[in-house]
Amino acid sequence: MRAMRALPRRHLLAWLTSGALSAPWTAHASETPIEVEGFSFEPNLALPGGRVLLNGAAVSSILSVRTNVVALYLPRKTSSVEAALTEPGPKRLCFYAMRDVSAKDLSNTFLERLRQNATQDEIMGNFVQISQFGGAFGNRTKLSRGDFIAIDFTPATNSTIMTLNGQRLGDPMQGEGFFRMMMKIWMGPKVKASTRSALGGEGNRG
Q1: Is there a contact between 56 and 24 (Cβ–Cβ < 8 Å)?
Q2: pLDDT (mean) for 14-25
Q3: 120: burial class by Cβ within 10 Å (0-12, 13-18, 19+)?
Q4: Are strands 21-26 and 50-62 parallel, antiparallel or unpaired?
Q5: Minimal CA–CA distance to 196: which of 62, 83, 58?
Q6: Which of 54, 57, 156, 195 has a CA 20 to 30 Å removed from the CA of 70?
Q7: In 37-158, where do the E strands start and end?
Q8: What are phi and psi of 65, to 5 degrees?
Q9: What is the per-residue pLDDT across 80-99, written as a single tens digit (0 to 9) for each?
Q10: Pairwise CA distance, residues 133 & 171, whole Å
Q11: CA 108 from centre of chain
């Protein structure tokens, strides 16, 4: 299988500006790892920008096939999608691959979800970062079951970095607005409501 190549910028821009998820879990107070579909998430983490708490986790699908388990970490737990999307400070989106999946298919799915869920202003304002993100998988042919991708935002550098099994993927992507836009891949208005709710922490309401 050939490695994916990043789309030319003019093609990516035209695509993005043209014209399902399941099995949620929501964080509750706990000091033990939370297991979702056999994959564990720590209840809190120390990131370079500070400590973050597990806000929620859910199973994500590509073309109706259960493909990964995604989790969101924030500096404090929220109880709504809107609050999670605007929470300042360090943040982490991360997921485990539940099965082998083409890197090209995964990247294209994420870009398509951005096109569906982000605003035109967000897309135009973060086009360079979107191009970086789309090309980050370019030297890989696939993700294998158990592979772990983390997408971390650090306020001090105002940048997002992506790692695969602890190894850097691509270059830092600038701006907190870019990370918030990335959250819409799993929490945007056209994402399944149960998954949006789980990641947004609606089950955290006391």
Answers
A1: yes
A2: 45
A3: exposed
A4: antiparallel
A5: 58
A6: 156
A7: 39-41, 44-47, 50-62, 65-74, 91-97, 101-102, 142-143, 148-154
A8: -105, 125
A9: 999 999 999 999 999 999 99
A10: 9
A11: 14
Our measurement of the distance from residue 203's CA atom to the centroid of its chain's CA atoms, rounded to an integer in Å, reads 20
Measure the CA–CA gap between 102 and 137, rounded to whole angstroms.
10
Crossing angle of helices 103-117 and 9-17, in 10° steps, is 50
DSSP strand pairing (50-62 vs 44-47): antiparallel
3-state secondary structure of 133: helix
Angle among Cα 172, 176, 178 to the nearest 5 degrees reads 70
User: Whole-angstrom Cα distance, residue 155 to residue 133?
Assistant: 19
Q: Both tokens of residue 68?
A: 């990964």
Beta-bridge partners for 40: 35
Please tell me the pTM assigned to this model.
0.84
Residue 73's nearest CA partner among 60, 59, 89 is: 89
Q: Check: CB of residue 51 under 8 Å from CB of residue 77.
A: no
- Give the burial class of 42: count Cβ atoms within 10 A of its Cβ; 0-12 exposed, 13-18 middle, 19 or more buried: middle
Q: What is residue 203's DSSP assignment? A: G
